[in-house]
């Protein structure tokens, strides 16, 4: 049954409304200053005094509380009705003037009920659309996550190919992501950068797939020609990753091509210096050196943590503190213990 809130102070008008509408609708008589939304009316009928009392609250309700319109009818004198039509239209849908004609009242209330039904239908459609949009968004997120997972799996499998050529490489790849993510956090990089370098960092040596085994696995020192071939893994890695469009591959290009560049410009393959080296490559440079010092290689025995840290911070002629971004080196100095934990966890 339709619920009509009646906010009328004139006793004669209240009586007419009761006689005309009482058999067809549930009438909720209330004071304009105390009416509450808990009444859940379908239509509101009020007169001038009640309108003045509840107009601010009525406007707030209509703007925020209900997705569907609650139609309002104002009962007024002929002069007041004319004024209402010009000044109050944003608060009301209809104006009826006194003396009230029962047939006119029924017709106008019937029209307001149709407006209410239409508004409720539109609100229902909006709710349904919102639900559909939310479900669609969830499906898009699910498929995006699945696509990302598939992409990362492909990258991981590519990197695992290197593990079959060097038994240490697999663990080195896994540790590299953790080193890089931690260093990125320590120097204040945002979360997106941290997550990206966690995936891209391990791509730094992917170019070694193109290095012959005789050089890659040589137990002794490399001669000049062999060393030039070994150094080419940076540019090989760049070329291998450069055709991709993913942000992970874009950063992979940076770390592959720049992780052997030095802050002082003494690195390779381009001898660039300072902030001309991408931040991702500067982070990877330190992570790579630490892990290389800690790991067994065909040409060397592994170092313990304390020895590796001391060598990075003090230098030994081949590795120098000037090779590293000072901000990244300071972060490593403060948090070197975390590197030891990562190495132990993934060794």
Folded structure, characterized:
- The chain is built from 13 helices and 5 strands.
- With about 350 residues, it is an alpha/beta fold.
- The chain has 2 domains: about 130 residues, Response regulator (Rossmann fold), CATH 3.40.50.2300; about 180 residues, Hypothetical protein af1432.
- It has a 5-stranded parallel β-sheet with strand order 2-1-3-4-5.
- The longest helix has about 60 residues.
- The protein starts with a strand and ends with a helix.
Secondary-structure content class = alpha/beta
Could you name the CATH homologous superfamily of the largest domain?
Hypothetical protein af1432
**Major pleated sheet:** 5 strands, parallel
User: How many extended strands?
Assistant: 5
Mean pLDDT: 84
Oligomer: single chain
- Report the order of strands and helices: EHEEHEHEHHHHHHHHHH
Q: What integer value in Å does the Rg equal?
A: 38 Å
Number of helices: 13
CATH-defined topology of the largest domain: Hypothetical protein af1432
Shape: rod-shaped
Give the strand line-up of the largest sheet: 2-1-3-4-5
Which regions have little confidence, pLDDT < 50, spanning 5+ residues? none
**Percent of residues in helical segments?**
55-70%
Strand content: 5-15%
| Termini separation | 74 Å
The CATH class of the largest domain = Mainly Alpha
Count of domains: 2
- Quickly give the CATH architecture of the largest domain: Orthogonal Bundle
Salient structural properties:
single chain; 347 residues; alpha/beta; Rossmann fold; Hypothetical protein af1432; 2 domains; five-stranded parallel beta sheet; 13 helices; 7% strand; rod-shaped
């Amino acid at each position: 049954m339709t619920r009509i809130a009646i906010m009328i102070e004139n006793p004669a008008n209240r009586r007419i409304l009761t006689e005309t509408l009482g058999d067809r609708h549930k009438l909720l008589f209330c004071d304009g200053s105390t009416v509450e939304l808990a009444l859940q009316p379908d239509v509101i009928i009020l007169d001038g005094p009640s309108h003045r009392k509840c107009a601010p609250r009525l406007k707030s309700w209509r703007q925020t509380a209900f997705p569907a319109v609650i139609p309002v009818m104002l009962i007024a004198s002929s002069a007041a009705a004319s004024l209402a039509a010009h000044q109050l239209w944003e608060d009301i849908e209809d104006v009826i003037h006194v003396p009230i004609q029962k047939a006119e009242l029924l017709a106008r209330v019937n029209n307001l009920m149709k407006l209410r039904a239409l508004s409720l239908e539109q609100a229902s459609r909006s709710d349904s659309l919102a639900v559909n949009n939310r479900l669609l968004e969830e499906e898009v997120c699910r498929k995006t996550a699945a696509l990302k997972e598939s992409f990362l799996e492909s990258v991981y499998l590519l990197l695992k190919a290197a593990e079959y050529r060097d038994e240490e490489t697999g663990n080195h790849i896994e540790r590299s992501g953790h080193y890089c993510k931690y260093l990125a956090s320590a120097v204040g990089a945002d979360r997106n950068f941290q997550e990206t370098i966690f995936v891209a960092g391990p791509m730094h040596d992917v170019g070694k797939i193109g290095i012959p085994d005789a050089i890659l696995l040589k137990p002794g020192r490399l001669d000049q020609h062999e060393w030039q071939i070994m150094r080419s893994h940076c540019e090989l890695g760049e070329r291998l990753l450069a055709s991709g469009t993913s942000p992970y591959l874009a950063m992979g290009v940076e770390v592959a091509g720049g992780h052997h560049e030095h802050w002082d410009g003494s690195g390779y393959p381009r001898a660039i210096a300072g902030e001309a080296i991408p931040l991702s490559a500067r982070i990877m440079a330190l992570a790579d050196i630490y892990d290389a010092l800690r790991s067994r290689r065909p040409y060397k025995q592994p170092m313990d943590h304390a020895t590796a840290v001391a060598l990075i911070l003090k230098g030994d002629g081949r590795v120098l503190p000037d090779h590293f971004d000072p901000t990244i080196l300071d972060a490593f100095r403060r948090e070197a213990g975390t590197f030891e934990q990562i190495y132990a966890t993934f060794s």
